[in-house]
Structures are given as C-alpha cells and as structure tokens.
Amino acid sequence: QVQLVESGGGLVQAGVSLRLSCAASGRTLSISAMGWFRQAPGKDREFVASINRNVGNTYYANSVKGRFTISRDNAKNMAYLQMNDLIPEDTAVYYCAAGPGKWDYWGQGTQVTVSS
C-alpha cells in the first residue's frame, strides 16, 4: 500500500507561480513513476505531467509545456510540480498519482484557483 498526500495549492492571480508537493509513504519501493493530474469543474480528470523514478524522463500535457515542471526527490519520496505563468484555465483540483503501473495510487487532491 502507498499513500500520497498533496500540498501547496491555493488562490492566486494569473501570472504568478505555485509549487505543489506530493509526499509518498508506505511501500514506496514499489513506485516506478509519479505524476500529476487535474480535474476542473464539470470536466474529466486530465493528465498534466509525469516522471520516471529511476531515469527521470518527464512527460507533459501540451497545455502546460513550457510553464510547468515536474521533479522528484527519491530519497525523500517526494514529487513536485512547479507551476509558472498560471492562467485561469489552470484552475482545478490537482492530484498526485504513483505506481508500478499507471496509475495505482492517488492522493486526495489540492485545490488550485487562478483568478484573472
């Protein structure tokens, strides 16, 4: 069993930055990748970014390329999402995910609201 807890969300104005954190605990040895997803009101959950735990390969949704950066600290069992140049369309609940597969474990989510 793996537990994931997100933090760092909040209410900000467009153009500013936020950094989300995801803390993993439990059977963290089983984690091969970590990722971020988001869900806006009335919409399906969508992929944002992911990173391979061992190699560090990263993947991004087109909507966030050049603005968001995913990173990880394996020693601390942490993953991060640096969000720059935020726009109102980024408003959503952001979820951390992990697993040997894609995706087996999910956090509770953290709200990000971007005002115009």
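The above is record 1. Record 2 follows with the same two-line structure.
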Amino acid sequence: QVQLVESGGGLVQAGGSLRLSCAASGRTFSSYSMGWFRQTPGKEREFVAAINRSGSSTNYADSVKGRFTISRDNAKNTVYLRMNSLKPEDTAVYYCKATLSSSRTYTYWGQGTQVTVSS
C-alpha cells in the first residue's frame, strides 16, 4: 500500500550533520505513523526515532536524544531525520518505517540509506 524511499545518507566527519529523507507513495501518508531505525552488520535493527501521524508527538532512542530530530511534512509525503553532532557509532544503514494501525496493523520498510561517520 505504501512504498518508501530513503535518501540523504553519505560520509561525514564526527561532529558533522546530515539530514535523511524518506519519500512515501501509495496510501495516504498522513494515515501512517513513521519511524527511523538503523542497523550495522551482525547487529539487530535498532529503534532511532518515531513520529505520530500528525507530527504532534515524537519519540527518540536515548542514544540520539538531543542530537537527532524527526519531522514530517504530510503535504510532501516525506519524513525527515536531522542528525547533528554525529559520532562514529552512528554509522549504520538507516531505514524508514511506516505503520498503519486500523482494524489491523501494517508495517512497511524502505530500502535503507548508508550513513558513515568518520573519526
């Protein structure tokens, strides 16, 4: 019902900033809660940030609080992750997630975008 495409990843130095974007298509974007997760080889995918359908509520992993900001623009069908004060341990593939909760719960994932932070 929805396709997600992440972009904005790249190589940055420690202390730098990067903004990731996730463009959605398909079912009405505003119906979905959105989130960002990240994963490194050999490790489980971990939660990074989430935002509710209207954008009025956000949630962050402790490891990124104060540094990352999730936001959404429903008119553009896009969710963002602004990452500041990046650390080498932030290096991972970042994935966009969409969740639709109605009579059933549906979850969709993007293909991921690589973020590499050099020391």
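The CA atoms of residues 90 and 117 lie 7 Å apart.
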